[in-house]
Amino acid sequence: MHATQTLIRGGLVLVENAQFAPVSLVIEEGRVVAVIDGDGPDDLPTLDATGRIVIPGLVNGHTHSHGALGRGGVPEDATLETFLAGGAALNGNRHSDDLRLSAELSAVEMIRKGCTACFDLSVELPGPSVAGIHAVAEAYHNAGLRAVVAPMISDRTIYQALPGLLDAFAPSQRAALAAISLPRWQETLAICTEAFARWPVPRDRVKPGLGPAIPLHCSDAFLTACAATAQAADLCLQTHLAETQMQQVAAHQRYGTSLTAHLDRLGLISPRFSGAHGVWLDPHEAALLASHGAGIVHNPLSNLRLGSGIAPLHALRSAGVTLGVGTDAANTSDAQNMFEALRLATTLSRTSSAPPEHWIGPTEAFRMATEGSARILGLDRVGRIAPGWAADLLFLDRSYCHYVPLRDPLSQIVFAETGAALREVMIAGALVFADNRVLTLDEASLAERAGRAATRLDAANHDARQMAEAAALIVRSFCRSACARHPHSHPL
Ligand SMILES: [Zn+2]
Fold first, then answer.
1. How far apart are the CA of 199 and the centre of ligand 1, in A?
2. CATH for the 57-379 domain, from 3.40.50.300, 3.40.50.720, 3.40.225.10, 3.20.20.140
3. Quick one: pLDDT at residue 172?
4. Cα–Cα distance measured from residue 197 to residue 348, given in angstroms and rounded to the nearest whole number
5. Cβ neighbours for 232, distance < 8 A, ≥ 6 positions apart
């Protein structure tokens, strides 16, 4: 055995995401290098996992770090479109230090709830900056979390994105809303490219990606350029795909076809492509995604919170689409709890009298939330416990009530765990959470800074909030009647 190795012994370990066994793990350079029956050798530094259930870290396939500073700011009756109309009220006037703080808050929450890697679409208004993108990357690096940091970018506001929306406003309001504009996409992409070229942290843990926000919010030229940039720099690309019925209705109006068919015409659909949500996809779109090796990230709680619908997981699975699981952000989802998303991935598949053979079982849901999401993040050998795979591990207290008595550990984890039994989190062989403390960040200082930032930002964005509240009523009724006029019944 090598001197730089560590032994984890005494735990009940989920091996290969298939079965639990009382094995020991040898860790070296951030990876599991051996899975040994029994206690293993006595001459290595040892982490005692007696009384623990050891599982791979959960991988969050879709979130937004900027959401953490927007926590509590989303009205209880918000839909996605009214939320987007209020984007400036939640995200305006932020400096790069606010983006860093928000990413640190987001990282703390994810680590505390068993997430070891995330795909972050982080926004900066009116457009990205090198300093802002780098601040988010540095925050994840310092937290020890794996991440894809994908600036969320657009060149159309919601008022420019949805055909006919501006006409629903009175002329006086219309002029003010029409005047809102975003930077030219050439400028936006140039900033992203510069930020990626001068990437401030090691890419093996925190790497860049691209996040064209929503296809309708990006011109075709912009989308095509994003695909080319992603291809040239070998980046993952993620967008919000068919999250709401309104998006699919507007796609048929604007493009004369579905969202996915349009993106395919532009050359975006590829193995590096993933769509968040995918609630309103049709069978042709599912087949297109599958045939290109593209993925969909299921965000069940966000879809419920915003009333977007329930994604057709069984149909996507049957079509062969790569599936991952995400939380979405702490603003629209209120919490980033991958255990909760995992449980909803299996339980929501049982609604509407779906036959049991269509249900997503706990083992499959768990694989989606680990290996599936990791594939969507483009991570190499992350998401299972096996020789050569990342030592991203969660240690659950098997004496906690969820596991007493213990009959079927994986089922009990998926159906019952909330994070309450989580005792330690390891990422790339290093502990980042233990003794109920995140070891990589100062949580007390973060809380104090977050309180001050929220007070300052709420005051700075007061007028934008009032404007958003007035616009929300019109946006909601516009979407309702647009969807009623162009019925797009749940297609899958
Ligand atoms: Zn999202």
1. 24
2. 3.20.20.140
3. 87
4. 42
5. none
